[in-house]
Amino acid sequence: MRWCVYMVRCNDGSLYTGITTDVERRINQHNGLSRGGASYTRGRRPVALVFTDFRNDRADASRLECRIKKLNRADKDRLLAGSPLPKSLLAKV
C-alpha cells in the first residue's frame, strides 16, 4: 500500500497537510462530499489539492508530513512553486 502526503489550499488561502492512502476520497471528505475530513477544513471549504508526494510506508509519510508542517509559510510556498528547499528540510526518508 502506498501512502500519500498531500497539501490542500483552503478557501481562505491557508494550507492543510495530511497523509492518506486514497487522495480522492480524502479530498472529497475535506470538501464535505462524504463523511469524515478534518475539522480544520470544515469551515474553510472548498479545498483544492496543491501537493502530493507518495511514500512506500506510513512511517515515511508521517515523517515527511511532520517536516512539512514545521515549515514556515514562505518555505511551504516555495515547495508548492517547485523551488528547491534545503535537503535538511525535506530529505527523503
In short:
This protein is of the alpha+beta class and 93 residues long. It is 41% helix and 23% strand.
Chain-wise SSE layout:
Layout: E1 3-9, E2 15-20, H1 23-30, H2 39-42, E3 48-55, H3 58-70, H4 73-81, H5 87-90
Antiparallel strand pairs: 1-2, 1-3
Describe this protein with a few key phrases.
93 residues, alpha+beta, GIY-YIG endonuclease, three-stranded antiparallel sheet, 5 helices, 3 strands, 41% helix, globular
Helix-and-strand structural type = alpha+beta
Total strands: 3
Identify the CATH class. Answer: Alpha Beta
Strand content: 15-25%
Average predicted confidence as pLDDT: 90
Structurally, the number of domains stands at 1
> Could you estimate the helical fraction of the residues in percent?
40-55%
- Kindly identify the CATH topology: GIY-YIG endonuclease
CATH architecture: 3-Layer(aba) Sandwich
Computed Rg: 13 Å
Looking at how many chains there are and whether they match, the oligomeric state comes to single chain
What order do the strands of the largest sheet run in, or round the barrel if closed?
A: 2-1-3
What is the tally of helical segments? Answer: 5
CATH-defined superfamily: GIY-YIG endonuclease
Order of helices and strands: EEHHEHHH
Uncertain regions: pLDDT < 50 for 5+ in a row? Answer: none
Termini separation comes to 17 Å
Query: Describe the biggest sheet?
Result: 3 strands, antiparallel
Shape: globular
Any overview of this molecule?
The two termini are 17 Å apart. This protein is globular. It has a 3-stranded antiparallel beta sheet with strand order 2-1-3. It is built from 5 helices and 3 strands. It has helices at 23-30, 39-42, 58-70, 73-81, 87-90, and strands at 3-9, 15-20, 48-55. The chain has one domain (3-90): 3-Layer(aba) Sandwich (GIY-YIG endonuclease), CATH 3.40.1440.10. Strand 1 and strand 2 (15-20) form a beta hairpin. It is of the alpha+beta class.
